[in-house]
Amino acid sequence: MENVLFVLFLAFYLLTLPGNLLILLAILTSASLHTPMYFFLGNLSVLDIFFPSVSSPKMMLYLMGQSHTISYQGCASQLFFYHFLGCTEGFLYTVMAYDRFAAICHPLRYKVIMSHRVCIVMTLGTWLGSCLHASVLTFLIFRLPYCGPNEVHSFFCDIPVVLPLACADTSLEQTVSFTNVGMVALMCFLLVLTSYSRITLSILKIRSSEGRRRAFSTCSAHLTSILLFYGPVVLIYLRPASSPWQDSVVQVLNNIVTPSLNPLIYSLRNKEVKLALRKALSQGVHTCWR
């Protein structure tokens, strides 16, 4: 079974890296994609390259029969980068929702609202805010003494599986981590919901069915990614009872499967991305044959 899982997870991981690199290449090389929407999509591709790399390589080493141990520092690093990159992705989806709101609800003022400077400030804010969020959580969890059980009942280190191993009262850390993760997720979700409520009202006011279809199509990929992102967050962190087996399945979906699907979601129904990819690949092939 381990060999089958290794091949399966390796396939997803190898699909994730080139898929997101191709999206990033298309955005960087195509002048027509140098817009706020694709600037944020480029950031999402960078996240989807690094996010599965937090846990996938170590997990695949386990499946190959290598040592099933992880160092204390390695465990802390996994927890930090998992929440740093995961929180950044949540913030980024929120910013992308606001970008779609500005484009559809205020098309004449879109370039002023989403100027280059605003995009840079928003992006830096997502990365820095997420770094602070992850630093607080990691400090709280790893300031506790760990002197007893040392078996992490999961394939990587995260708050629900590390906290029970502490040799001290963890009620404060449980409350803070639950509140912190819950508030960040809830705030982002409500902002996304507000943006799309306004977007839906604006689209319904469009008289032509073709205009409504085109407006909805620009949001469909983003909405699909949001559902894939928030589903696992709710199942793992915001439910009262915990099931180790269910948590592992959900985290595999969140850590490995979803990052491999995002390139497909954003490219299959996007003519601009497909055209830019063909152009970039044809130029690359032409350069190689010269």
TrEMBL record:
Domain of life, source organism: Eukaryota
Keywords per UniProt: Cell membrane, G-protein coupled receptor, Membrane, Olfaction, Receptor, Sensory transduction, Transducer, Transmembrane, Transmembrane helix
GO cellular component, one term: plasma membrane
Annotated TM spans: 6-28, 35-54, 118-142, 181-204, 216-238
Membrane topology: Multi-pass membrane protein
CDD domains with a match to the protein in the record: 7tmA_OR10D-like
PROSITE patterns, per database record: G_PROTEIN_RECEP_F1_2
SMART domains: 7TM_GPCR_Srsx
Stated name of the protein: Olfactory receptor 958
Molecular function terms, GO-annotated: G protein-coupled receptor activity; olfactory receptor activity
UniProt-listed Pfam families: 7tm_4
InterPro entries with a match to the protein in the record: GPCR_Rhodpsn, GPCR_Rhodpsn_7TM, Olfact_rcpt
